[in-house]
Amino acid sequence: MAMYRRAIRPVLFALDAEASHRATIGLCRTAGSSVILRRAAKARFGIRDSKLHTTVAGIDFPGPVGLAAGFDKNAEAAPAMSELGFGSIEVGSVSLHSSKGNSDRPRVWRLPLDEGLRIYYGCPSDGAEVVAARLKSIKLDVPLGVSLVETNTGTVTSADHAAEELAHAMTYFSGLADYLVLNLSCPNMPRGGGLFDSPEKLGMLLRCCAQPAGMPPVFLKLTPPGDAEDPSVIDLILGAVAPFDFVKGFILNIPNRDPGGTLKTPPDSLNQMRGGITGPSLRQPTNKAISAWYSRIDRKRHVLIGCGGISSADDAYRTIRLGASLVQLYTALVYQGPGLIKSINEGLSRMLERDGFRTIGEAVGVGE
């Protein structure tokens, strides 16, 4: 990680954030096409500790730390990223139709004082058919997830139309993805998420999505309306999901509702940006929500995936102990580089041994 910070990050940070992202995806695409480079990366960064293996929703994960959606939007970097020690790779979010995302530029800003990002991409996507065709030509040694979202047309869509789109998009990934995520809470779509906040609308969506045959396990990525820790809010969502066995769990997308009070970045700078904020400032609200949800879910049926502010082994372990069966990250890679995942895996292994756990699964939900 030291070499990344000294030599590579300054070069990437000399570019604007979106150009840097495009350059990184291009490098990953090139590296992923080389068998020699992939083998070398796996030898250096690969997971070597069986204690980190876990089974979630019937899927075998070699490790609990996954790449979150948002980095590899169109499944171009997945082969390279899968060799860096990740236990899973989630691509997307992918929409049924192609979309350029939000038209305004810039769309991504770095918050270096907070090691975060502010993102207003608006879910640009090559479209489900193109991404699915791309996935047919690659093979990963770790589980592959595909995050799905309604197409960004620049206007507000209806819940009925979005549900039909998501259900149609799912059909492209049967037999290709190990799991699917329905992204119901993208903060920089025209409506900013929220189409399926009501139990009635969520139930309608899931009825639409229950049709495809051979569907892999599905997780819902959502921002609970109101207080994410409120038992009544949680129970309404769980009640809406209860009839649908294909839903195996939740990724809680908890926004930073108080940027001015929680970030070192000056308010004047923040006010020149738009979109969702990522990075360490999300860690505390996300963990509080995970703890509250873990106390109310049926643990034989549903799991939680922790995503928000994880940038170290300590962060990952705490989130797991609070109730997350898996964790994901993306922003921390921007600031710490690809060696971060090996560091987290090695740290988790040491902490499991220290605390007397034989596997990572034994640590899920044991509390702080």
Describe the structure.
The chain has 368 residues and is α/β, with parallel strands linked by helices. It has a single domain, classed as Aldolase class I (TIM Barrel). Helix content is 38%, strand content 16%. It has an 8-stranded parallel β-barrel with strand order 3-4-7-8-9-10-12-13, surrounded by 4 helices. It has a 3-stranded antiparallel sheet with strand order 5-6-11. The protein has a two-stranded antiparallel sheet with strand order 1-2. Strand 8 (179-183), helix 7 and strand 9 form a beta-alpha-beta unit. The longest helix has 17 residues, at 339-355. The two termini are 28 Å apart. The mean pLDDT is 93.
What's the short version?
The chain has about 375 residues and is of the alpha/beta class.
Tally of individual domains: 1
Rg (C-alpha, Å): 19 Å
Query: At the third CATH level, what is the topology name?
Result: TIM Barrel
Stretches with pLDDT under 50, minimum 5 residues: none
Helix segment count? Answer: 14
Question: How much of the residues is beta strand, in percent?
Answer: 15-25%
Helical content stands at 25-40%
Broad shape: globular
Mean residue pLDDT: 93
* Distance N to C terminus: 28 Å
- Name the structural class: alpha/beta
Name of the CATH first level:
Alpha Beta
Order of helices and strands: HHHEEEHEEEHEHEHEHEHHEHEHEHH
Spatial strand order of the main sheet = 3-4-7-8-9-10-12-13
Main beta sheet? 8 strands, parallel, barrel
The total strand number stands at 13
Examine the secondary-structure arrangement and name the CATH architecture: Alpha-Beta Barrel
The CATH fourth-level homologous superfamily: Aldolase class I
